[in-house]
C-alpha cells in the first residue's frame, strides 16, 4: 500500500506539472495586440481640421501602444470614401478610422451608403459646437435681440453656411426649428468663405465653429452671441451657451476613432486606453488649445449611445427640411 501511495503521489505531481506547463503555454501563446503598425484612416485632405486632430493624436500615441501609429488620408465624397473603406476593413484593430459627424448626416442626405452601426466606437476625441456669430458692428448685442429681430422679420436675416446639408447649415436649421424663426440660408464652399462674406456684409450671421472665427473675434471684427454646446467653448469662454440662454440645442462637428464592427472587445479596450492616454498628454492638449479646437472625450459606450441619438436626430431634421437627394 505504501509503495502504491508513493507511486500515486508521483503520478499526481507529474500531472500537476504537466497541466501547469500547458496552462503556461496557453497564456504565452495568447494573441497579443498590437504587434504591428496601426493605421488611422482620415477621410479628408491633409492639412484640414480632421487631419490635424488625427496627426496630433497619432504623434502623442506613437509610443503608447508599442507600435507605430500612422495617418493615411483617403479623400472623396465629403468623407464617405475614407469612412466606407474603414467600415469594410478587417476587424483586427490595425485599421482605425477617424469618423466625423458626416457619418450620421451623409446617409440621410442620400449621398453615401455608410452606416454608423458598421463601426465599433473607440472614443470621441473632439467636439466643436456651432457658434452664432455676427459682425462686431451689428445692432444685436445678445442672442435674444438677434432672434427677436429674425422672428419679427422672417427671411430677412441671411445666415451663411458651408454648403447645403453640411453641419453648419443643419445647425442654423436646427436653431430655426427650436425658436420658430425663419432665416435665408446662403451656402458657400466651406466655412472660411462664409466668414469672409460675413465680414463683407453679404450675410448677417454665420453658424460655424468658434475656431473658425477666433481670429476675427481677436481682431474685434465679429461678435459671438452663443455657442451650441453643453459647456462654454475655450475659444470664446465669455460667450454663454444656448442652454444658458434658455434654448436646449447642442449641435456641432465632432471627430472620433472607431474600428469595424466585430473587432474583439479586448482590442477595442486596448485602443481606447492608448488613445485616451494620448488625449490626456500635455502635447495633445496644448496643440488643441493653440488650434482653438475643443476636446470632447466620450468613452466607447457613451460614444456608441451618442451616435444613435445623433443619427436619429439628423435623420428627422434632414427629412423635415426635405434635403434627402433620394426624395
Automatic annotation (TrEMBL):
> What residue ranges are annotated as transmembrane?
none
Task: Enumerate the InterPro entries for this protein.
Answer: BUG, Bug_dom1
Q: Where is the signal peptide?
A: 1-20
Which PROSITE patterns does the record match to this protein? PROKAR_LIPOPROTEIN (PS51257)
Q: Does the keyword Signal apply?
A: yes
Task: Show the Pfam families listed in the entry.
Answer: TctC
State the UniProt keywords alphabetically: Signal
Report the sequence similarity comment from the record: Belongs to the UPF0065 (bug) family.
> What is the protein name for this chain?
Uncharacterized protein UPF0065
- Organism of provenance: Thermosinus carboxydivorans Nor1
Amino acid at each position: 500500500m505504501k509503495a502504491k501511495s508513493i507511486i500515486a503521489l508521483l503520478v499526481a505531481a507529474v500531472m500537476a506539472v504537466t497541466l501547469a506547463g500547458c496552462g503556461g503555454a496557453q497564456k504565452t501563446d495568447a494573441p497579443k495586440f498590437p504587434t504591428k503598425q496601426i493605421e488611422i484612416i482620415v477621410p479628408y485632405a491633409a492639412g484640414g481640421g480632421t487631419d490635424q486632430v488625427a496627426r496630433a493624436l497619432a504623434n502623442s500615441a506613437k509610443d503608447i501602444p508599442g507600435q507605430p501609429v500612422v495617418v493615411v488620408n483617403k479623400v472623396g465624397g465629403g468623407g464617405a470614401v475614407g469612412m466606407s473603406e474603414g467600415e469594410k476593413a478587417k476587424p483586427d484593430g490595425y485599421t482605425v478610422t477617424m469618423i466625423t459627424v458626416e457619418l450620421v448626416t451623409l446617409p440621410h442626405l442620400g449621398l453615401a451608403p455608410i452606416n454608423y452601426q458598421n463601426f465599433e466606437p473607440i472614443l470621441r476625441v473632439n467636439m466643436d459646437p456651432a457658434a452664432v456669430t455676427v459682425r462686431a458692428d451689428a445692432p444685436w448685442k445678445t442672442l435674444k435681440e438677434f432672434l427677436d429681430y429674425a422672428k419679427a422679420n422672417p427671411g430677412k436675416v441671411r445666415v451663411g453656411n458651408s454648403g447645403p446639408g453640411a453641419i453648419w447649415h443643419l445647425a442654423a436649421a436646427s436653431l430655426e426649428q427650436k425658436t420658430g424663426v425663419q432665416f435665408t440660408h446662403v451656402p458657400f464652399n466651406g466655412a472660411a468663405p462664409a466668414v469672409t462674406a460675413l465680414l463683407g456684409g453679404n450675410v448677417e450671421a454665420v453658424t460655424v465653429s468658434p475656431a473658425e472665427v477666433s481670429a476675427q473675434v481677436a481682431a474685434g471684427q465679429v461678435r459671438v452671441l452663443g455657442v451650441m454646446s453643453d459647456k462654454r467653448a475655450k475659444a470664446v469662454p465669455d460667450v454663454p451657451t444656448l442652454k444658458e440662454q434658455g434654448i436646449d440645442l447642442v449641435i456641432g462637428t465632432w471627430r472620433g476613432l472607431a474600428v469595424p464592427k466585430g473587432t474583439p472587445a479586448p482590442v477595442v479596450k486596448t485602443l481606447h486606453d492608448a488613445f485616451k492616454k494620448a488625449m490626456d498628454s500635455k502635447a495633445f492638449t496644448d496643440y488643441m488649445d493653440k488650434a482653438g479646437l475643443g476636446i470632447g472625450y466620450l468613452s466607447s459606450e457613451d460614444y456608441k449611445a451618442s451616435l444613435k441619438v445623433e443619427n436619429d436626430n439628423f435623420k428627422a431634421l434632414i427629412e423635415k427640411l426635405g434635403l434627402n437627394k433620394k426624395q
